[in-house]
Amino acid sequence: MTVQQSGRRERKKAATRQKIADTALRLFLERGYDAVGIRDVAAEADVAVTTLFSHFASKEALVFEQDEDFEHRLTRAVTDRAPNEPLVPALRREVLALVRHCTADSAAPIWRMIDASPTLRKYDETVRLRHAEALAAAIAADPALTRSETVARTLARFVIDAYSLSRESPDPEAAVDEIFPMIEAAWAAARPSHRTHT
Predict the structure, then answer these.
(1) pLDDT of 56-106, one tens digit each?
(2) SS3 content of the chain, % helix, strand, coil (to 5)
């Protein structure tokens, strides 16, 4: 297979995935999450149920279709920050950008749907834990940060909670400003671990 063919195939897969996600979200918002089944989404998107499941592992995943991008953005805030840039300001900048995106007027109906569904709220908690573990792994893997795995996991949980609490706040940006000095203080208070560098 040529590079061009491979690229075309990947674009087609991405377009199918987006079409399924967009269709699902429209149906969920029109009819209610619990009133729409997987078969309804597949039929409306004009794909087989097996095709839908090749892109999304569950019905809940259709609502959180951007969560991989969210996770990558957080981990890149660690791995792609400028040399010698402190960790917490880099994370604060990314969390603020994510909060602005998720509190835009267009996102409000989606969050209302999530908040109204016990199933989606539980799934959201699972997703947040996964994001925290991915972020912790990125922090722990950075030799310049010299903190223990426990500290990395704790900071990651703080950051994910900061995002959630800020998103739910009446003034999201003020909440970020209020929370991150506490995260900075916790990070500064954590004693560096004694790593051996080879």
Answers:
(1) 999 999 999 888 899 999 999 999 998 889 999 999 999 999 999 888 888
(2) 80, 0, 20
Give the Cα separation of 124 and 173 in Å (integer). Answer: 21
Check: CB of residue 107 under 8 Å from CB of residue 99.
Answer: no
Cα separation, 26 vs 28, in Å, equals 6
Cβ(140)–Cβ(149) under 8 Å? yes
64's tokens: 């959180």
Task: Give the other-Cβ count within 10 Å of 65's Cβ.
Answer: 17
pTM of the model: 0.85
Per-residue pLDDT of 145-184, as tens digits, reads: 888 999 999 999 999 999 999 999 999 999 999 999 999 9
